[in-house]
Amino acid sequence: MLIVFLLFAQEIFKFRSFVWISFIVYILFQLCVVDWLLASNLILGIVVILLNTIWFEITIIISYYLRKKSGVFVGYYYFLLLWLINEYSHLYGVLHWPWLNLGNFFSSTPNIIQWYEYTGIAGGSLWILTFYVFCTIYSRIIS
């Protein structure tokens, strides 16, 4: 749902407002996901939340500019590509956080976790993000 909100927010808000809103939303998301790290080490938790938020914001800012330059529908493809690159860098980069991948939010459904583990970033995230983008495009068409 975070992704759908950000896709809609790109269209509603001007650049500066959008950056602040996405920054705040992603910090709140990080607080929910990495709360266990805050409980074990406050300084490390704050650093992780800030680094992940900044890394995410770089992706969102690039996506916003590409969307404005190339149009809405092509911009969605750039968003998908940049988000998958972001996840890939989280998984295999120096600061890797595999629990932040989209597939880990399916903790109550082991079958989906196994599917996501098998398909990985190249499959699971692509399908989920494509579904979110199509939902956003569909809502634009019917409204």
Strand content: under 5%
The beta-strand count equals 0
Give the low-confidence spans. Answer: none
Mean pLDDT: 76
What's the number of structural domains?
1
Shape: globular
Determine the N-to-C terminus distance: 19 Å
Describe the sheet with the most strands: none
Task: Provide an overview of this structure.
With 143 residues, this protein is mainly alpha-helical. It has one domain. It has six helices and no strands. Helix 4 packs antiparallel against helix 5.
Provide tags for this entry.
143 residues; mainly alpha; 6 helices; globular
How are the secondary structure elements laid out?
Layout: H1 2-12, H2 15-33, H3 35-40, H4 42-70, H5 72-92, H6 110-142
Helix pairs in contact: 1-2, 1-6, 2-4, 4-5, 5-6
Short synopsis of the structure:
This protein is mostly helical and 143 residues long. Helix content is 83%, strand content 0%. The protein is globular.
